[in-house]
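User: I'm curious what two different proteins look like when written out as structure tokens. Can you demonstrate?

Assistant: Sure. I'll show them one after the other, since each token string lines up with its own sequence. Here's the first protein:
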Amino acid sequence: MYTYKRDFYKLLAVDTCVWSVTSVCIPFLNAYYAMNGITDMQIGVLAAIGPVAGLCFQPLWAMLSDRTEKRRLVLQLISVVGGAAYLLYLLGTAFAVFCVATIVFMAFNSAIMPLNDAIVTKEAQEKKVNFAIVRMGGTVGFAIVILFVGGYLRSHPTHMFWIGFVVYAGYAAVCFLLPKDPKGKNRAGRPARAGKVQPDEKTGQKRKGKIFRSNEVVFVLAIAFIMQIAVSFHAAFVSVFVVDLGYDQSMIGILFCISAFSEVPVLFAMPKLMARFNTLGLLCAALFIAALRVILVPNGTIPYIILSQALQGPSYMIAYYGCVTYIRDHVHEGKISQGQTILVMIQGGFATVAGSLAGGFLSDAFGLAPAFVIISGFVVVSAVGILVATRVYAAKQAGRRD
């Protein structure tokens, strides 16, 4: 019992800290851009530049992490350098300065979450720790930090960069609670040799470079892609929408706090939901809820926006938890960092670029409110298409077994 509690609290501390880092850095950036005269289209470009930089560097960090098996050290390294890079935003308020700062910052920041998830989900599974409760620490940490930071940044908006730098360094220190990296050997006791094809410990088959065990992962990644388009658009422009209504960072902090706490009951329910329902069915249901969340914003009143934020848990958290645990359970041995990185590249890379650029274009072309309506319709149509495709795939697989 003591060992279980010790492992649980260590993982809880790490996951709480990584989401606290996120709460300081990401939600207030777009409002900061708007306050400095950056247009909606430019905000969309900035929101897309970061994921593009992440797409270039995430695979390198993941391969370095898996091949060297120095996952904790790599995570700590990119956290410290990422925190230092966050200070580049203080060099000026011109669009070009923001572009350079975003590229450098996201080259490191974009890899933190997949590497953290790779380590934490694997350790939780091996130590029999409930990952849903561990993830809840991140949710609560995000909500508390963003509420207080939002109130503080109301009078000191540029201080978020120094706060972020300190929080990144603190997270790197907390990562010492994670298991030590192996010294020259992998967990099976064999010498760790980069590039050598090893047999999978669960299937006994050689991987030959493959990461996933089943082609079904395509549907999971597609759902993650569509969900993230909705989430990235919503996150990028709901703060702009709120500023246009005459509110400030304090209200933004309150709204994101509401969205974070909406994840708590979902996390309590996720283990039972995953045991009772098909994962793909749950993920498709989350897409429909995400469409509802997006369509509520253009009503233009705070009560509707609050309701939209409250749907964060039933939409994004179901998708996040379902996708992360699916990847954990369907990768070949020794490929978990690369598997989680592919998921994050789909979400934080391709989908975020698409959502941000589409949001910026649609907002400039039709207005911000109609853009929310168009994105919501796109998510509904995509959800229906993916749901039909999964049913057809399941029927074909059943026919092959018969």
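Here's a second, unrelated protein for contrast:
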Amino acid sequence: MPNHKDPTKKTHAPWYYLLLLILAGEAVFILPFVLPRVFRPTVLDVFDLDNTELGLCFSVYGIVALASYLFGGPLADKYPPRKLMAVALWMTALGGLLFATYPTFRTLQMLYGYWGFTTIFLFWAPMIKATRVWGGDTSQGKAFGFLDGGRGLTGALFGALGVLIFSIFLTGRFELAPLAERKEAFTYVIYIAATIISVIGVLVWFFMKSRIGEQEIILPKISAQEIGQVLKLPSVWLLMVIILCAYVGYKITDVFSLYAKEVMLYDEVQSAKVGTFLLFIRPVVGALIGFIADRSKITFWLLVSFFIAFAGSLLFASGIIAPNTWLLFFLSVLIVAIGVYAARALYFAVMRQGRIPLALTGTAVGLISIIGYTPDIFAGPAYGYLLDASPGEVGHQHVFIMLAVFSFVGGVAALAYHRLYKN
């Protein structure tokens, strides 16, 4: 392995660097993912989609993202992260203008493909590399915990703002509002989100600078030999499996608002609040797990997170959660969320422990993500099919059986990683 010096040893970027990283890290995904998660029943209605069709839009995103991970990773090792991230934010916000016209299903698929390019090719690997820069030599757990937790808080605030705007532009009872009125209200949500994303892009371009020179963390050229050396690392292959399984869990959290409507019999606004509640859990979990992991063994807590997600998924798969068990419902949501969000906060935090050089972070992230984020292709259609094939509670049980299987496999891979790199 080439000897790339780690310029971040005992060096942190300023606090506002992390703040901008957090804001950008979630803002870029607001339009393609956060709004459909919080407003899933509304999105299905105003775009005239079923669960499978929405899942297919996510699949197009995932297919484009797959190539974007491969080629965008090395790009992050050649150019400053802030510039790539800012351009990605502006281009993503531009797609919101088309989103607000409520295009046909085919056009919507093309839009999700476009977002797959803007949010991954230009953004994903630079964000991970910038986070490693802030974490330095001793705070990788906090860096990635704060990133994911902060992104969760940003998503929660966007979700809460969206629900507020949506409710302001509706008159009378929500469940009785005509489709045209709900569509108009949701249009305001889209436009305001796109505007905020653009502003964050400006801030990132001008202010997200670390205390180390940008030339110290980029390489003029990535050779085939260096890519080959990265692929020889066991940590890279294990992280492919770990991230794949954890990301399936994260994708399945999209169904909680739909579960609230179809099984718990909540109305649209109440079900959207369930989705927003999840977003508020995420920052707490990210911050706590980051502090805890830096004071012990990150790899151990990654293993524990998969076990928690597995236990929570079994509660939903058992069928014991019903409209008259609202307390058990929220407790089970909390358990699943803790496991899923903890795994998400930690899986990139173990890169340094897995001996992946900082200067090749982008390349490594690109290679890992080719496998790790394939759930963007198959998870949406898979759980969409399960929900549509068995409407109601049975379909949701099948989805959580799927979560249990992936949590178990992820736990096995995390155990192997822990045994290899715990020291």
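A detail about the second structure: The domain at 15-209+222-421 is CATH 1.20.1250.20 (Growth Hormone; Chain: A;).
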